[in-house]
Amino acid sequence: MKEAAVEERQPSYLARLRMEYRSSDKAGYIMVLPYVLHFLVFVAYPLVFAFILVFCKWDIVSPMEFVGLRNIQRLMRDTTFWTAVTNTLKFLALHIPLQIVFALLIAVVLNGPIKLRGFFRGAFFLPFVISGAVVTILWQQLYSTDAGVFNLILTKLGASPVPWLTDPSIAIYSIAVMATWKNVGFYIVLFLAGLQNVPRELYEAASIDGANRGEQFWKITMPLLRPVTLLVIMLSTIGGFGLFIEPFVMTGGGPAESTLSVVLYLYKNAFQFLKMGYAATIGFALALMIFLVTLVQRKLLDVEQPY
């Protein structure tokens, strides 16, 4: 009788299972709480506040004033904004192809049996982790019309100095070359990861069939690197739309607004002109452009694995 009473007092297997799940749920909630708080404070709240600003006029000092769709209407008629969009697209038109070509070529070389391979991999990646302001100031000196290294070399060769940053027709492309030099190391790492996942047996079989290195590259390497190439294109596009530190330090958006990027224009409206509502409108327009461009890229590029 005593044993039966003890058995009746003990919780059943299902009851013990429920208790264990409840205790584990509590632990899970406690562990995820810091991330939830971080998301609410630093992501959700700023995003909602910025969306509210789109429909308001606010200069930080005066009370916020609701203006409806006035900021959006102004954005559609703002020629300076569309100039900034055009400049950003010009930057991307040179930056993305340069990024892909140089990153892929260097990755192929670094993936081969060369001496000091580890050193060169680190050397190419180093500019990516250096402060953008430091790199920008360095290239500003290299691009100097009077005493820059590039123009000194051209002068020695008998050519005329090039106004890299003072000619409105080439200034944005000069910045694109500099940005490519700084960021290419990151994309080299991505391509290296893709190259090292290509099965060596495919190259051996192609070699037995008589394919040379060029044919192996175009028929094996490039198709298998398609997903990595898409990733590089999308990351380069997103990063290119965020162009800010280079024109901000090197040209201030000049000459004649030829290097004014969308993010730099947003910054000027927010922190120089104190037009927070209009700056928030530019920010959401930029996010929409990035989404549409990357969506088109995703649709145009086939990323299905060829094997």
Give descriptors for this structure.
74% helix; two-stranded antiparallel sheet; mainly alpha; MetI-like fold; 307 residues
Structural description of this entry:
Helix content is 74%, strand content 1%. It contains 14 helices and 2 strands, in the order ααββαααααααααααα. It has a two-stranded antiparallel sheet with strand order 1-2. The radius of gyration is 28 Å and the shape is globular. The mean pLDDT is 88.
Question: What CATH first level of the largest domain would be assigned?
Answer: Mainly Alpha
| Percent in helix | over 70%
Distance between the ends: 70 Å
The third-level CATH topology of the largest domain is MetI-like fold
> Unreliable segments (pLDDT under 50, ≥5 consecutive)?
none
Instruction: Tell the overall outline.
Output: globular
Helix/strand order: HHEEHHHHHHHHHHHH
Q: Work out the count of structural domains.
A: 2
Topology:
Elements: H1 2-9, H2 13-53, E1 56-57, E2 65-66, H3 70-77, H4 79-110, H5 117-129, H6 132-142, H7 149-156, H8 171-196, H9 200-208, H10 213-224, H11 226-241, H12 245-250, H13 262-272, H14 276-300
Antiparallel strand pairs: 1-2
Helix pairs in contact: 2-14, 3-14, 4-8, 4-11, 5-8, 11-14, 13-14
Short note summarizing the structure:
The protein is mostly helical and 307 residues long. Helices cover 74% and strands 1% of the residues.
